[in-house]
Amino acid sequence: MTLENWYTPGIPVGVTIGAHLGMGLDLENRAAFKYESTTDRVNLLWPANGNDAVVAATREVNNRVASASRTLPSVIPPLLTDVYAGYTAHPLGGLVIGKATDAHGRVKGYKGLYVMDGALVPGSTGAVNPSLTISALAERNIEHIIAAGG
Prior knowledge:
The chain has a two-stranded antiparallel ribbon. A two-stranded antiparallel sheet has the order 3-4. The longest helix has 17 residues, at 52-68. Strand 3 (32-36) and strand 4 form a beta hairpin. The two termini are 39 Å apart. The chain has helices at 52-68, 131-147; strands spanning 2-8, 15-21, 32-36, 41-45. It is an alpha+beta fold and 150 residues long.
């Protein structure tokens, strides 16, 4: 978990806001891939409320840190009086290029399965938003795979 405190000067008073990025892994509420032979498709099945336990744990830590540091747990009270858990900030990794995939995003050991998103990137791209790096990797990989015939 990354914790930062920002001081925001304001009129009539300055405000200190705690900005917290929490990421978690819930080993009990996991998604699963299911192959449907009748359609020859693979579907991702995500459990209902699958993120609830991670969001609750993140909320608890965020609110404890905000209380101990006398900061606000949200940027815009009273509209949001607690941690906002509706977004993910630039997740990267998971199927890292050169480890889980070959150099062009083909998943090792699974013919016809490709990764073309941020899961290929092993860490920070050094930029605020990695979307251009991800797009460039995907375009490069697709061109190579098409040229190689799949």
